[in-house]
Amino acid sequence: MLLASAEDKFRQCAQGYMVTNTGFLDLRQRGLVEILCRQLSCGEKDVEYRFFGGYEEAERMLCLFLPDYAMIEDSHPLTVIRAESLSKGKPLTHRDYLGSLTALGIRREMIGDILTRDEGADIIVMEEIAGFLLLNYGKAGRTPLKLTQVPLRELRIPEAQVKRQKDTVASLRLDNVIASAFSLSRAKAAEAIRMGLVFLNSMQMEKTDAQVKEGDKLVLRGKGKAYLREVGQKTRKDRIFIITERYL
Q1: How crowded is residue 147: how many other Cβ atoms within 10 Å of its Cβ?
Q2: Which residues contact 14 (CB under 8 A, 6 or more apart)?
Q3: Which DSSP symbol is given to 113?
């Protein structure tokens, strides 16, 4: 159903010469849609597809289909609902916000990233549900919220905590680099890959021996994301120096 819907949006853009888009996609869905889009684009040169989630490091993105006249900055359907906690208690978590939103009956594909901070959160959503949220979304758990709608350009992106790590690996196989970046044994890294929990440059990978290059983005579900920032020379024992950055 996901791929059929994405193909339908692609065809609408090509035939109607108009901007269309999917709902928000998780990493696995994005990988499947990207494979489809590559295939469809081979026979249709007038449609550009772009994945967009509101900011550069967004985890949840929609796929925009753009005719040649359209610019992504003017064509995306996203807005930001800014939620401010009216309670001085324990800060709300991502789970608190997401649970209270889905309890309203809102489908997950309508909600993008939820960027939390101590005093509230910026929630990226489809603009079509913004009015509904402003009228009906008053609490996360037992915590009352004050809501305002702000344009995407005013999105508040929390400063990321980054752990920079130097290490050596036997090779640039995916299991080796995942083990190093996320402080796992190679066996656990290989198991995570085979379970479909690892993404390389937003594509789900299930081969432990896939090769990783300098600059590649690595995601391990439940553990976060990391980048292979530098690949250095080999040691005397024929291991490779690497530097990774893990986002906590």
Answers
A1: 17
A2: 44, 46, 47
A3: E
Strands 198-200 and 203-204: antiparallel
Q: What is the pTM of this model?
A: 0.85
Q: Which of 149, 125, 5, 1 is nearest to 53 (CA)?
A: 125
User: Would you put residue 75 in left (φ > 0), alpha (ψ -120 to 50) or beta?
Assistant: alpha
Give the distance, in angstroms, between the CA of residue 74 and the centroid of all CA atoms in the same chain.
Answer: 21
Per residue of the chain (248 residues), what is the pLDDT tens digit?
999 999 999 999 999 999 999 999 999 999 999 999 999 887 667 889 999 999 988 999 999 999 988 889 889 999 999 999 998 888 999 999 999 999 999 999 999 999 999 999 999 999 999 999 999 999 998 899 999 999 999 999 988 889 999 999 999 999 999 999 999 999 999 999 999 999 999 899 999 999 999 999 999 998 999 999 999 999 999 999 999 999 98
**Cβ(41)–Cβ(11) under 8 Å?**
no
State the residue for tokens 């090509």. Answer: 14
Rounded to 5 degrees, what are φ and ψ at 93? -105, 170
Tokens at 219, concatenated: 């995601």
The SS3 of residue 72 is helix
